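pls read this protein:
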Amino acid sequence: MRDLFVTIVVFSFLPVALVKPHIGILVWAWLAYMNPHKLSWGFAHDFPFALLTALAILIGVFFSKEPKKIPWTAETVILLLFVGWMFLTTLFAIYPAPAWQQWDKVWKIQLMTFVVMMVMTTRERIQAMVWIIALSIGFYGFKGGIFTLTTGGAYAVYGPGGSFISGNNEIGLALIVTVPLIRYLQLTTRQQWLRIGLQVTMVLCLISIIGTQSRGALVGLAAMSLFLVAKSRKKFFLILVLAISIPMIISFMPSAWHARMHTIETYDQDQSAQGRINAWSMAINLAKDRILGAGFDCFRRDLFILYAPDPNNVHDAHSIYFEVLGEHGFIGFSLFALLGIATWKRAGWIIKRTKENPELKWMTDLAAMLQASLVGYASSGAFLGLAYFDLYYNLIAILVLCKVILDKEWQLQPQMKQTLVKEPRKFIRSAVAKRATSSGITR
Protein backbone atom coordinates (compact mmCIF):
# COMPACT_ATOMS: atom_id res chain seq x y z
CA MET A 1 0.00 0.00 0.00
CA ARG A 2 2.84 2.41 0.83
CA ASP A 3 4.55 1.57 -2.46
CA LEU A 4 1.38 2.40 -4.37
CA PHE A 5 0.81 5.65 -2.46
CA VAL A 6 4.31 7.02 -3.10
CA THR A 7 4.20 5.96 -6.76
CA ILE A 8 0.82 7.64 -7.36
CA VAL A 9 1.90 10.86 -5.67
CA VAL A 10 5.21 11.16 -7.52
CA PHE A 11 3.91 10.22 -10.97
CA SER A 12 0.94 12.56 -10.51
CA PHE A 13 3.31 15.48 -9.94
CA LEU A 14 5.83 14.68 -12.70
CA PRO A 15 3.72 16.39 -15.43
CA VAL A 16 3.23 19.35 -13.09
CA ALA A 17 7.00 19.63 -12.60
CA LEU A 18 7.43 19.92 -16.36
CA VAL A 19 5.21 23.02 -16.37
CA LYS A 20 5.94 24.39 -12.89
CA PRO A 21 9.45 23.40 -11.83
CA HIS A 22 9.02 24.99 -8.38
CA ILE A 23 6.34 22.39 -7.60
CA GLY A 24 8.79 19.72 -8.70
CA ILE A 25 11.36 21.11 -6.27
CA LEU A 26 8.89 20.61 -3.42
CA VAL A 27 8.29 16.98 -4.45
CA TRP A 28 12.05 16.44 -4.78
CA ALA A 29 12.59 17.91 -1.28
CA TRP A 30 9.91 15.60 0.12
CA LEU A 31 11.65 12.60 -1.44
CA ALA A 32 15.11 13.78 -0.34
CA TYR A 33 14.30 14.49 3.30
CA MET A 34 11.38 12.28 4.27
CA ASN A 35 12.43 9.40 2.00
CA PRO A 36 8.84 8.04 1.93
CA HIS A 37 9.83 5.27 -0.48
CA LYS A 38 12.27 3.93 2.13
CA LEU A 39 9.29 3.30 4.43
CA SER A 40 7.88 0.75 1.98
CA TRP A 41 8.87 -2.88 1.56
CA GLY A 42 8.11 -3.50 -2.10
CA PHE A 43 9.19 -2.22 -5.50
CA ALA A 44 9.12 1.44 -4.43
CA HIS A 45 11.88 1.01 -1.84
CA ASP A 46 14.71 1.32 -4.36
CA PHE A 47 12.85 2.93 -7.25
CA PRO A 48 14.62 6.12 -8.54
CA PHE A 49 11.78 8.55 -7.76
CA ALA A 50 14.17 11.40 -6.93
CA LEU A 51 16.04 10.96 -10.22
CA LEU A 52 12.83 11.04 -12.28
CA THR A 53 11.64 14.11 -10.39
CA ALA A 54 14.98 15.87 -10.89
CA LEU A 55 14.88 15.14 -14.64
CA ALA A 56 11.35 16.54 -14.86
CA ILE A 57 12.49 19.67 -12.99
CA LEU A 58 15.47 20.19 -15.30
CA ILE A 59 13.32 19.80 -18.41
CA GLY A 60 10.78 22.19 -16.93
CA VAL A 61 13.48 24.76 -16.14
CA PHE A 62 14.84 24.51 -19.68
CA PHE A 63 11.46 25.22 -21.29
CA SER A 64 10.19 27.64 -18.66
CA LYS A 65 9.68 31.27 -19.70
CA GLU A 66 10.61 32.53 -16.25
CA PRO A 67 14.02 34.24 -15.90
CA LYS A 68 16.64 31.57 -15.29
CA LYS A 69 19.94 32.60 -13.80
CA ILE A 70 22.17 31.65 -10.92
CA PRO A 71 22.41 34.45 -8.34
CA TRP A 72 26.14 35.14 -8.12
CA THR A 73 26.97 35.99 -4.54
CA ALA A 74 29.99 35.27 -2.37
CA GLU A 75 28.34 32.02 -1.28
CA THR A 76 27.57 30.73 -4.76
CA VAL A 77 31.05 31.57 -6.05
CA ILE A 78 32.71 29.78 -3.12
CA LEU A 79 30.36 26.82 -3.51
CA LEU A 80 31.15 26.54 -7.22
CA LEU A 81 34.90 26.66 -6.47
CA PHE A 82 34.42 23.98 -3.82
CA VAL A 83 32.56 21.74 -6.27
CA GLY A 84 35.28 22.25 -8.87
CA TRP A 85 37.98 21.43 -6.33
CA MET A 86 36.16 18.23 -5.30
CA PHE A 87 36.05 17.18 -8.94
CA LEU A 88 39.80 17.77 -9.21
CA THR A 89 40.53 15.72 -6.07
CA THR A 90 38.34 12.94 -7.47
CA LEU A 91 40.43 12.86 -10.66
CA PHE A 92 43.53 12.15 -8.54
CA ALA A 93 41.86 10.09 -5.79
CA ILE A 94 43.86 7.29 -4.21
CA TYR A 95 40.81 5.01 -4.34
CA PRO A 96 39.20 5.90 -7.72
CA ALA A 97 36.24 3.50 -7.72
CA PRO A 98 34.65 4.57 -4.40
CA ALA A 99 35.67 8.19 -5.01
CA TRP A 100 33.78 8.36 -8.32
CA GLN A 101 30.83 6.61 -6.70
CA GLN A 102 30.67 9.29 -4.01
CA TRP A 103 31.24 12.07 -6.55
CA ASP A 104 28.19 10.81 -8.46
CA LYS A 105 26.10 11.59 -5.37
CA VAL A 106 27.78 14.89 -4.51
CA TRP A 107 27.54 16.56 -7.93
CA LYS A 108 23.83 15.74 -8.17
CA ILE A 109 23.24 17.33 -4.76
CA GLN A 110 25.13 20.45 -5.81
CA LEU A 111 23.35 20.63 -9.17
CA MET A 112 19.97 20.61 -7.41
CA THR A 113 21.25 23.24 -4.97
CA PHE A 114 21.91 25.61 -7.87
CA VAL A 115 18.56 24.70 -9.46
CA VAL A 116 16.82 25.61 -6.21
CA MET A 117 18.50 29.04 -6.37
CA MET A 118 17.27 29.51 -9.94
CA VAL A 119 13.67 28.43 -9.32
CA MET A 120 12.54 29.21 -5.75
CA THR A 121 12.73 32.96 -6.19
CA THR A 122 9.67 34.21 -4.29
CA ARG A 123 8.66 34.37 -0.67
CA GLU A 124 5.80 31.93 -1.25
CA ARG A 125 8.11 29.35 -2.83
CA ILE A 126 10.70 29.70 -0.06
CA GLN A 127 7.98 29.39 2.56
CA ALA A 128 6.63 26.24 0.90
CA MET A 129 10.10 24.70 0.77
CA VAL A 130 10.72 25.40 4.46
CA TRP A 131 7.39 23.74 5.26
CA ILE A 132 8.32 20.64 3.22
CA ILE A 133 11.79 20.34 4.80
CA ALA A 134 10.55 20.94 8.34
CA LEU A 135 7.64 18.52 8.12
CA SER A 136 9.60 15.84 6.24
CA ILE A 137 12.36 15.61 8.85
CA GLY A 138 10.03 16.64 11.66
CA PHE A 139 7.99 13.53 10.88
CA TYR A 140 10.86 11.40 12.21
CA GLY A 141 11.25 13.68 15.20
CA PHE A 142 7.53 13.35 15.98
CA LYS A 143 7.65 9.59 15.54
CA GLY A 144 10.97 9.22 17.36
CA GLY A 145 9.80 11.33 20.28
CA ILE A 146 6.76 9.11 20.80
CA PHE A 147 8.98 6.03 20.44
CA THR A 148 11.36 7.33 23.12
CA LEU A 149 8.50 8.06 25.51
CA THR A 150 6.78 4.71 25.01
CA THR A 151 10.00 2.68 25.36
CA GLY A 152 11.39 4.66 28.27
CA GLY A 153 14.41 5.68 26.21
CA ALA A 154 15.72 2.13 26.24
CA TYR A 155 16.34 2.06 22.48
CA ALA A 156 18.03 4.57 20.19
CA VAL A 157 16.08 6.51 17.56
CA TYR A 158 17.13 5.89 13.96
CA GLY A 159 16.22 7.45 10.62
CA PRO A 160 14.90 5.79 7.44
CA GLY A 161 17.17 2.99 6.25
CA GLY A 162 19.27 3.55 3.14
CA SER A 163 19.19 7.35 3.43
CA PHE A 164 21.63 10.09 4.48
CA ILE A 165 20.00 10.13 7.92
CA SER A 166 19.62 6.42 8.61
CA GLY A 167 21.94 6.27 11.64
CA ASN A 168 21.18 7.60 15.11
CA ASN A 169 23.94 10.23 14.83
CA GLU A 170 22.73 11.33 11.41
CA ILE A 171 19.04 11.69 12.32
CA GLY A 172 20.13 13.54 15.47
CA LEU A 173 22.00 16.13 13.40
CA ALA A 174 19.13 16.47 10.92
CA LEU A 175 16.64 17.10 13.73
CA ILE A 176 18.92 19.66 15.38
CA VAL A 177 19.06 21.59 12.11
CA THR A 178 15.28 21.25 11.65
CA VAL A 179 14.08 22.44 15.08
CA PRO A 180 14.84 26.14 14.28
CA LEU A 181 12.93 25.77 11.01
CA ILE A 182 9.91 24.52 12.95
CA ARG A 183 10.31 27.47 15.31
CA TYR A 184 10.35 29.83 12.32
CA LEU A 185 7.09 28.34 11.02
CA GLN A 186 5.57 28.71 14.47
CA LEU A 187 6.54 32.39 14.59
CA THR A 188 5.09 33.17 11.18
CA THR A 189 1.93 31.03 11.25
CA ARG A 190 -1.35 32.75 12.11
CA GLN A 191 -3.57 29.74 12.75
CA GLN A 192 -3.62 28.86 16.44
CA TRP A 193 -4.09 25.14 15.87
CA LEU A 194 -1.06 25.05 13.58
CA ARG A 195 1.09 26.88 16.13
CA ILE A 196 0.10 24.36 18.79
CA GLY A 197 0.85 21.47 16.43
CA LEU A 198 4.26 22.91 15.59
CA GLN A 199 4.99 23.41 19.29
CA VAL A 200 4.17 19.78 20.04
CA THR A 201 6.32 18.68 17.09
CA MET A 202 9.22 20.80 18.33
CA VAL A 203 9.08 19.25 21.82
CA LEU A 204 8.87 15.73 20.38
CA CYS A 205 11.87 16.52 18.16
CA LEU A 206 13.84 17.53 21.27
CA ILE A 207 12.86 14.25 22.91
CA SER A 208 13.86 12.39 19.75
CA ILE A 209 17.29 14.12 19.60
CA ILE A 210 18.05 13.00 23.14
CA GLY A 211 16.54 9.60 22.32
CA THR A 212 19.10 9.05 19.54
CA GLN A 213 21.63 8.43 22.35
CA SER A 214 24.17 10.31 20.24
CA ARG A 215 26.78 12.24 22.20
CA GLY A 216 27.48 14.50 19.24
CA ALA A 217 23.77 15.26 18.98
CA LEU A 218 23.69 16.21 22.66
CA VAL A 219 26.52 18.71 22.12
CA GLY A 220 24.81 20.07 19.01
CA LEU A 221 21.48 20.33 20.85
CA ALA A 222 23.06 22.42 23.61
CA ALA A 223 24.72 24.82 21.14
CA MET A 224 21.65 25.11 18.91
CA SER A 225 19.31 25.70 21.88
CA LEU A 226 21.39 28.63 23.14
CA PHE A 227 21.38 30.32 19.74
CA LEU A 228 17.71 29.48 19.21
CA VAL A 229 16.85 31.45 22.34
CA ALA A 230 19.25 34.27 21.50
CA LYS A 231 17.96 34.70 17.93
CA SER A 232 14.24 34.11 18.43
CA ARG A 233 11.44 36.55 19.08
CA LYS A 234 9.19 35.88 22.10
CA LYS A 235 12.18 34.61 24.05
CA PHE A 236 10.32 34.14 27.35
CA PHE A 237 7.99 31.53 25.87
CA LEU A 238 10.86 29.66 24.23
CA ILE A 239 13.03 29.78 27.37
CA LEU A 240 10.09 28.41 29.35
CA VAL A 241 9.55 25.54 26.90
CA LEU A 242 13.24 24.59 26.80
CA ALA A 243 13.80 25.07 30.54
CA ILE A 244 10.93 22.74 31.36
CA SER A 245 11.14 20.17 28.57
CA ILE A 246 14.88 19.43 28.30
CA PRO A 247 15.54 18.73 32.03
CA MET A 248 12.38 16.59 32.16
CA ILE A 249 13.47 14.63 29.10
CA ILE A 250 16.98 14.08 30.48
CA SER A 251 15.66 12.93 33.86
CA PHE A 252 13.31 10.55 32.03
CA MET A 253 16.15 8.77 30.21
CA PRO A 254 17.49 5.48 31.66
CA SER A 255 20.76 5.12 33.57
CA ALA A 256 22.47 3.56 30.53
CA TRP A 257 21.87 6.80 28.61
CA HIS A 258 23.34 8.91 31.40
CA ALA A 259 26.39 6.64 31.60
CA ARG A 260 26.95 7.00 27.85
CA MET A 261 26.61 10.80 27.92
CA HIS A 262 29.05 11.07 30.84
CA THR A 263 31.77 9.60 28.63
CA ILE A 264 31.95 13.03 26.95
CA GLU A 265 33.83 14.20 30.05
CA THR A 266 36.17 11.19 30.00
CA TYR A 267 36.85 11.05 26.27
CA ASP A 268 40.49 10.15 26.93
CA GLN A 269 39.30 6.83 28.36
CA ASP A 270 36.68 6.16 25.70
CA GLN A 271 37.72 3.82 22.90
CA SER A 272 35.36 5.34 20.32
CA ALA A 273 36.54 8.87 21.08
CA GLN A 274 40.18 7.81 20.85
CA GLY A 275 39.44 6.21 17.48
CA ARG A 276 38.03 9.49 16.20
CA ILE A 277 41.03 11.48 17.43
CA ASN A 278 43.28 8.97 15.70
CA ALA A 279 41.31 9.42 12.44
CA TRP A 280 41.51 13.21 12.77
CA SER A 281 45.28 13.02 13.24
CA MET A 282 45.48 10.83 10.16
CA ALA A 283 43.52 13.43 8.15
CA ILE A 284 45.87 16.23 9.25
CA ASN A 285 49.01 14.25 8.37
CA LEU A 286 47.50 13.19 5.04
CA ALA A 287 46.59 16.78 4.13
CA LYS A 288 50.12 17.93 4.97
CA ASP A 289 51.51 15.34 2.59
CA ARG A 290 49.05 15.69 -0.31
CA ILE A 291 47.79 19.09 -1.45
CA LEU A 292 44.76 17.45 -3.10
CA GLY A 293 44.00 15.18 -0.18
CA ALA A 294 43.20 11.56 -0.96
CA GLY A 295 39.78 11.96 -2.59
CA PHE A 296 36.39 10.76 -1.42
CA ASP A 297 36.09 7.72 0.86
CA CYS A 298 39.74 7.66 1.86
CA PHE A 299 39.56 6.68 5.53
CA ARG A 300 40.92 3.19 4.94
CA ARG A 301 43.51 0.94 6.53
CA ASP A 302 46.25 1.58 3.95
CA LEU A 303 46.29 5.29 4.72
CA PHE A 304 46.04 4.74 8.47
CA ILE A 305 49.23 2.68 8.24
CA LEU A 306 50.97 5.60 6.52
CA TYR A 307 49.57 8.59 8.41
CA ALA A 308 47.82 7.64 11.66
CA PRO A 309 49.49 7.68 15.11
CA ASP A 310 47.88 4.29 15.77
CA PRO A 311 47.78 2.43 12.43
CA ASN A 312 45.61 -0.36 13.84
CA ASN A 313 42.82 1.89 15.09
CA VAL A 314 40.92 2.47 11.84
CA HIS A 315 37.87 4.73 12.06
CA ASP A 316 35.79 6.87 9.74
CA ALA A 317 36.29 10.63 9.97
CA HIS A 318 33.21 11.25 12.16
CA SER A 319 33.60 14.99 11.56
CA ILE A 320 32.56 17.22 8.69
CA TYR A 321 35.80 19.18 9.11
CA PHE A 322 38.29 16.32 9.13
CA GLU A 323 36.27 14.48 6.49
CA VAL A 324 36.80 17.39 4.08
CA LEU A 325 40.39 17.90 5.22
CA GLY A 326 41.41 14.29 4.56
CA GLU A 327 39.49 13.97 1.30
CA HIS A 328 40.25 17.37 -0.25
CA GLY A 329 43.29 18.76 1.56
CA PHE A 330 43.78 22.16 3.13
CA ILE A 331 42.48 24.02 0.07
CA GLY A 332 39.25 22.05 0.05
CA PHE A 333 38.92 22.52 3.80
CA SER A 334 39.50 26.27 3.45
CA LEU A 335 36.76 26.55 0.81
CA PHE A 336 34.38 24.52 2.98
CA ALA A 337 35.09 26.69 6.04
CA LEU A 338 34.89 29.89 3.99
CA LEU A 339 31.50 28.81 2.67
CA GLY A 340 30.21 28.39 6.22
CA ILE A 341 31.57 31.78 7.31
CA ALA A 342 30.13 33.55 4.24
CA THR A 343 26.73 31.94 4.85
CA TRP A 344 26.73 33.00 8.50
CA LYS A 345 27.62 36.57 7.53
CA ARG A 346 24.91 36.56 4.87
CA ALA A 347 22.31 35.69 7.48
CA GLY A 348 23.55 38.54 9.68
CA TRP A 349 23.49 40.91 6.68
CA ILE A 350 19.86 40.00 6.01
CA ILE A 351 18.86 40.48 9.65
CA LYS A 352 20.53 43.89 9.81
CA ARG A 353 18.70 45.16 6.72
CA THR A 354 15.24 43.78 7.50
CA LYS A 355 14.73 43.93 11.27
CA GLU A 356 13.27 47.45 11.21
CA ASN A 357 10.88 46.75 8.33
CA PRO A 358 7.59 45.11 9.41
CA GLU A 359 6.90 43.88 5.87
CA LEU A 360 10.16 41.92 5.88
CA LYS A 361 9.85 40.55 9.42
CA TRP A 362 9.46 37.04 7.97
CA MET A 363 12.92 37.33 6.43
CA THR A 364 14.42 38.52 9.72
CA ASP A 365 12.94 35.52 11.52
CA LEU A 366 14.03 33.10 8.80
CA ALA A 367 17.63 34.35 8.71
CA ALA A 368 17.84 34.26 12.52
CA MET A 369 16.52 30.71 12.71
CA LEU A 370 18.81 29.61 9.90
CA GLN A 371 21.72 30.92 11.95
CA ALA A 372 20.58 28.65 14.78
CA SER A 373 20.42 25.76 12.30
CA LEU A 374 23.94 26.55 11.07
CA VAL A 375 25.22 26.51 14.67
CA GLY A 376 23.58 23.12 15.17
CA TYR A 377 25.14 21.75 11.99
CA ALA A 378 28.59 23.17 12.77
CA SER A 379 28.66 21.87 16.37
CA SER A 380 27.03 18.47 15.88
CA GLY A 381 28.88 18.00 12.59
CA ALA A 382 32.18 18.28 14.46
CA PHE A 383 31.52 14.68 15.56
CA LEU A 384 29.79 13.34 12.46
CA GLY A 385 30.77 12.95 8.81
CA LEU A 386 27.91 14.65 6.96
CA ALA A 387 29.89 17.26 5.03
CA TYR A 388 27.87 16.66 1.85
CA PHE A 389 24.40 16.54 3.42
CA ASP A 390 22.03 18.27 0.99
CA LEU A 391 20.07 19.93 3.80
CA TYR A 392 23.04 22.16 4.67
CA TYR A 393 23.45 23.30 1.08
CA ASN A 394 19.74 23.97 0.71
CA LEU A 395 19.88 26.22 3.77
CA ILE A 396 22.63 28.15 1.99
CA ALA A 397 20.41 28.34 -1.11
CA ILE A 398 17.51 29.74 0.94
CA LEU A 399 19.70 32.51 2.38
CA VAL A 400 20.97 33.38 -1.10
CA LEU A 401 17.36 33.57 -2.31
CA CYS A 402 16.49 35.90 0.56
CA LYS A 403 19.28 38.18 -0.60
CA VAL A 404 17.91 38.08 -4.16
CA ILE A 405 14.40 39.00 -2.96
CA LEU A 406 15.79 41.79 -0.81
CA ASP A 407 17.76 43.17 -3.76
CA LYS A 408 14.58 43.18 -5.86
CA GLU A 409 12.73 45.05 -3.12
CA TRP A 410 15.43 47.72 -3.09
CA GLN A 411 15.49 47.99 -6.87
CA LEU A 412 11.75 48.64 -6.89
CA GLN A 413 12.20 51.36 -4.30
CA PRO A 414 15.42 53.26 -5.16
CA GLN A 415 15.42 55.32 -1.97
CA MET A 416 14.61 52.40 0.29
CA LYS A 417 18.18 51.25 0.85
CA GLN A 418 19.60 54.56 1.97
CA THR A 419 16.64 55.51 4.18
CA LEU A 420 16.22 52.05 5.70
CA VAL A 421 19.87 51.70 6.63
CA LYS A 422 20.50 55.25 7.85
CA GLU A 423 17.11 56.22 9.25
CA PRO A 424 14.98 53.05 9.70
CA ARG A 425 12.36 54.65 11.98
CA LYS A 426 11.88 57.59 9.63
CA PHE A 427 11.41 55.14 6.75
CA ILE A 428 8.74 53.17 8.64
CA ARG A 429 6.86 56.33 9.70
CA SER A 430 6.94 57.55 6.11
CA ALA A 431 5.65 54.21 4.79
CA VAL A 432 2.81 54.15 7.34
CA ALA A 433 1.86 57.75 6.50
CA LYS A 434 1.77 56.99 2.77
CA ARG A 435 -0.48 53.99 3.36
CA ALA A 436 -2.82 56.02 5.51
CA THR A 437 -3.01 58.77 2.86
CA SER A 438 -3.65 56.29 0.03
CA SER A 439 -6.41 54.67 2.09
CA GLY A 440 -8.10 58.00 2.73
CA ILE A 441 -7.39 57.91 6.48
CA THR A 442 -7.06 61.28 8.09
CA ARG A 443 -6.75 62.46 11.64
User: Anything to note?
Assistant: Residues 189 and 421 are 28 Å apart (CA to CA). The first helix runs from residue 2 to 19.
